[in-house]
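[Q] Does anyone have a clean structure-token version of this?
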Amino acid sequence: MRLFDQSPDKRSFLIAEIAQAHDGSLGSAHSFIDLAADLRVDAVKFQTHVAEAESTYDEEFRIPFSFQDKTRYDYWKRMEFTKEDWRGLFMHAKDRGLAFGTSCFSLAAVDLISDFEIDFWKIGSGEILSEPMIEAMAKTKTPVLLSSGLAKPKDLVNAVEIIRSNATPFGIFQCTSKYPTRYSEIGLNRIPELREDFRCPIGLSDHSGEIWPSIAAVAQGAEMIEFHLAFHKGQFGPDTTASLIPDQVRELVNGCEAFATMIGNPIKKGNWSNEQEEMRKLFGRSIALSRHMNSGEIISSEDIIFKKPASGITAEKVGKVLGRKLVVNKSPERLLTWDDFE
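[A] Here you go.
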């Protein structure tokens, strides 16, 4: 996966989180894949739910949004897809040139997906203590991306140790588990801190519903960005307010590409191109007279002024001009030349 094979001029790896935005509709899930591909992101990420393996009727809704589900368990049940459904979504993403990943919430969900050669697993921060599931993902050798939102420092260390013990590539997202997240809660300072602590690709999993946290994270060197995707801000679903819509994603993609170009093309100020030399002449200054002078007059410092462009006698050569006798009448509207002296 390109995330683990980046050169300096490659843009940050952009993951469109579909999550439950499809609202249980397989057709809608496929539509999100096409939208993500059209927006030129790198990957789509879904969530794989098996209700009976992960939830109970005691689980409460985070947001009471559903018009048709009496319980959270019923909602997760409605979000389920069959193995063949997942195979179709996986193949569709591959056909559109997208990497494909998923968050699983049970061992049953991992088993459901593990037959496909997906590009990455995602561990949501609420699952950071699910050691058997993390172990099962890591054993596949498929890269594992960890979210730090609800993870205590020791939880993150423990999860990373499990993954490393299986010699599996991994990355970590700075994340704040609020929907939407306010700018003051983004925690950009954690990006260099996590990189120092874990020596792996670090990114931002953003829930602000705006592009600026991701742009700021890219400016800090984030190798990957994850954001929720929606068709429009009025779309039904619990994550819409924390999602980006197509016009925002286009801006984000353009911004990431601009950063990649700038970062991947360092310049040295001592290396002047022909174009820069011409600009230097255009904007620089040369020696001219401060008044009209006649042939035979001697040039003093009071007679000197510096004017554009720098195509005449340059300022550092003023010592060779002072005290010289003019052999022509000279206007202050023209630059001095060496032919003006005897």
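[Q] Thanks! Anything notable?
[A] The longest strand covers residues 13-19.
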